[in-house]
Structures are given as C-alpha cells and as structure tokens.
C-alpha cells in the first residue's frame, strides 16, 4: 500500500509539473517570464501616475491682441520682422480693405517660449491697444503619459516582431501580421500626438488683429459739440471772399457796356461844349 501510494503521488506530481510547463510556455515564447508582465504593468502605471518631479514643466501659451494703428499693412510688416528677429515665424497673415480708406490685418505669429513676453510687449506698443488676452495651460502630465505609452507600445511592437520570426504556421503569420499592423498604427498615432505637444509647448502662439481708425473722427466730434468762434470767423471769411468773387465777375461782365457808356458820355459832353460856343458867336 505504501508503494502504491508513493507511485500515485509521484504520478500526480509529474502531471502538475507538466501542466505548469504548458501554462508557462506561451509566456516564455512571448519573451516575458511568468509574473514579470504584471510587475511591468505595475511599474508602468506607477511611473505614469507619478511623474519625475525634476522634469521641466510643459506649458502651452497663447495670446490675442487687438491694436489700432495708422497703417495696418505697415504694422503687419513690422510684426513679421519682430517675430523673425525673435526666432519665430508667421503662421498665417491676411490683409483686407474695410472701405475706401481703411484696411485691417490678421496675423498669427509663432515665437519661442523664451521670447514670448518680450514680443508681446513690443506688439502691444505698436499703436492704441484695444484688447489683450493671454492663457497658459500646463500639459506636463499629458506629456509624461504620452511618453510612457509610447515606450510601452514600442516594446509591444518589438515583442510581436519576435513572435513573427519564430512562427512556422501560415495562420500564425497572418494573425501576427494583423496584430503588428494594428499596434504599429497605434504607435504612429501616439508619436503624432507627442510631436504636436512638443510643437505647442516649444512655440507660443500670438494672434494679432490690426485695425485703422475711422477718418475725420476729430472733426465729427467737434461738429457734435457745436460751432464756436473760430467756426463763425471761418464762415464769415468764406462769405466775404465769395461776395468779392461775385462782384468781380459782375464787374467783368459789365466792363464792355461801361466802356461804351463812357465813350458816349465823353462825346456828348464834347458836342454840348461845341454847341454852347457856337451860340454866342452867332448872336
């Protein structure tokens, strides 16, 4: 009985060991030791939740300015020069004619984060500041999370490629190719998100709206206040000049007739004198 019990126990032990080996085989083929995947996930999760306190902050800065200037095209050209001198660029620019005498410009500038404040001050002083808004959004946690997911996804892609190298069956190869394509697409999407975050945290965005004042604004304001002494003096002088002009025109028009009348009067006076002289001599 003791011998039979010992044989049965040995058979059960061998059966259990075989089952353990079969369960551990897929994990070993995947390049991961049993239990290590859970440890990796735990480490990855803790790394994502607890970013490195020594890491630099990642902030997205944006600003919007509305400025009244004498010439919108000239102010837009000056803003372009300012951005390029700071190491930035013009992302978008649009100038249009508002009416017959006024124009407006819409300019989107991208400048380095270090030059953001100085460029903003310089643009605000180009004319009369109408409005100014600025925002700063901290995306450090998002940047750390994306970096962590990219690292995990790269490891996953490399693991699938190793499995493809060891696959013998056609069905396994086809299945692994589909899985590799899906994981590669997810990795590319994460890389694009990472590049977008890097661009927005490295370069600040400034939207500049330039407008020109309405013409004759001061004259309209003076008219609303009512006429003054200078206005009356100016109006009287204008009337005086107009009257002199019309008198000169009337005199010019009557000059031929006045000349003829003068000749007639002179002749009449001479004939009258001759008649008076002839009268006494005849008597």
Provide tags for this entry.
five-stranded mixed beta sheet; disordered N terminus; 66% helix; 283 residues; alpha+beta
Topology (SSEs and partners):
Blueprint: H1 2-29, H2 36-49, E1 59-68, H3 72-85, E2 89-97, E3 103-112, H4 116-124, E4 128-138, H5 140-166, H6 170-202, E5 203-211, H7 217-225, H8 229-282
Parallel strand pairs: 1-5
Antiparallel strand pairs: 1-4, 2-3, 3-5
Helix pairs in contact: 2-5, 5-6
Molecular structure report:
The protein has 283 residues and is α+β, with helices and mostly antiparallel strands. It has eight helices and five strands. It has a five-stranded mixed sheet. Helix 2 packs antiparallel against helix 5. The N terminus is likely disordered.
**Structural class designation:** alpha+beta
What are the segments in which pLDDT stays under 50 over at least 5 consecutive residues? 1-54
Strand content: 15-25%
Overall spatial form: rod-shaped
Mean residue pLDDT: 77
- Count the DSSP helices: 8
């Amino acid at each position: 009985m003791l011998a039979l019990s010992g044989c049965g126990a040995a058979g059960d032990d061998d059966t259990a060991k075989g089952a353990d080996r079969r369960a551990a085989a897929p994990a070993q083929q995947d390049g991961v030791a049993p239990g290590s995947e859970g440890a990796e996930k735990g480490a990855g999760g803790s790394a994502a939740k607890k970013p490195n306190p020594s890491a630099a902050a990642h902030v997205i800065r944006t600003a919007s300015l509305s400025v009244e200037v004498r010439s919108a095209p000239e102010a837009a050209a000056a803003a372009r020069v300012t951005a390029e001198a700071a190491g930035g660029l013009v992302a978008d620019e649009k100038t249009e004619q508002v009416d017959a005498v006024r124009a407006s410009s819409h300019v989107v500038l991208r400048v380095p984060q270090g030059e953001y404040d100085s460029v903003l001050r310089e643009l605000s002083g180009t004319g009369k500041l109408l409005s100014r808004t600025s925002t700063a959004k901290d995306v450090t946690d998002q940047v750390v999370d994306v970096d962590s997911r990219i690292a995990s996804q790269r490891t996953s892609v490399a693991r699938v490629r190793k499995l493809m190298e060891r696959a013998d069956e056609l069905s396994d190869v086809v299945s692994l190719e589909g899985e590799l394509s899906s994981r590669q697409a997810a990795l590319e999407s994460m890389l694009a998100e990472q590049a977008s975050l890097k661009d927005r945290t490295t370069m600040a965005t400034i939207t500049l709206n330039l407008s020109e004042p309405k013409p004759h604004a001061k004259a309209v304001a003076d008219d609303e206040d009512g006429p003054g002494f200078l206005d009356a003096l100016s109006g009287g002088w204008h009337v005086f000049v107009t009257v002199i002009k019309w008198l000169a025109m009337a005199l010019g028009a009557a000059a031929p007739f006045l000349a003829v009348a003068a000749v007639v009067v002179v002749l009449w006076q001479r004939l009258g004198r001759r008649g008076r002289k002839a009268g006494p001599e005849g008597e």
